[in-house]
């Protein structure tokens, strides 16, 4: 081992150690990135555990002028108003492995302005995504929506026919309806009028994703891999020392190699004997 350490002080192997260090640093930050993704999904699940099944609160309690208040994503809310007759269709949305549309209603409320409500899902029409499917209009009377409050999605910057949007993004929706909308939207769980529960005829959306993925395992793998570069350098040094030894005294070096191989063989036979017993 002393010979290996002395050899590592040579410029050739100092360069190898420098490259191994760069590799280790890269592995460290890749591990940190994967760990941050794991922590983000863990935090998401903690928020879901806290908010998803809680008693509904008023929409205005968790939404202000800037959007959702911290820690309130997926809070169950209740909001009352009257739907505008027009609806928007969010294109290319999967539900149970099938693509279709999510249908957005525009709920005109007294306290919160125009609230976007994701009412449910409908499959593409037989003519394809370019032709909107026929669905029932929203209730014409006052309706109370219970659902989960969500932040808007990012815009996909796609040009679509009138009445369609590529994502549930505030500016895209505002451009379609020509009015300001509340700074967060509601993913509907139920709708009720004075006559009782209303049936939208739409399929409910899939529950939120709770999977943590393999990010934690990937992070640990990257951190373990940090040592790999140094291991290659050490193996290279040992190989170089053996080659020099063979060059100086081939017979003695060959004898040592035979002795080393014999020890390995005996150790392997001994292990087999223990397993057989």
CATH architecture classification of the largest domain? Beta Barrel
Number of strands: 10
Backbone structural class: alpha/beta
CATH topology of the largest domain: OB fold (Dihydrolipoamide Acetyltransferase, E2P)
Helix-residue proportion: 40-55%
What does this structure look like?
The protein has helices at residues 2-8, 11-51, 59-62, 170-177, 215-225, 228-248, 250-276, and strands at residues 57-58, 63-64, 67-68, 76-95, 98-109, 113-123, 143-150, 164-165, 185-193, 196-197. It is of the alpha/beta class. The chain folds into two domains: 2-33 and 216-276, no CATH class; 57-197, Beta Barrel (OB fold (Dihydrolipoamide Acetyltransferase, E2P)), CATH 2.40.50. Strands 4-5-6-9-7 form a five-stranded mixed barrel. Strand 5 (98-109) and strand 6 form a beta hairpin. The longest helix has 41 residues, at 11-51. The radius of gyration is 32 Å and the shape is elongated. The protein starts with a helix and ends with a helix.
Write the layout of secondary structure elements.
Blueprint: H1 2-8, H2 11-51, E1 57-58, H3 59-62, E2 63-64, E3 67-68, E4 76-95, E5 98-109, E6 113-123, E7 143-150, E8 164-165, H4 170-177, E9 185-193, E10 196-197, H5 215-225, H6 228-248, H7 250-276
Parallel strand pairs: 1-4, 4-8, 6-9
Antiparallel strand pairs: 2-3, 4-5, 4-7, 5-6, 7-9, 9-10
Helix pairs in contact: 1-6, 2-5, 2-6, 6-7
Brief sketch in words of this structure:
This protein has seven helices and ten strands. The chain is of the alpha/beta class and 277 residues long. Strand 4 and strand 5 (98-109) form a beta hairpin.
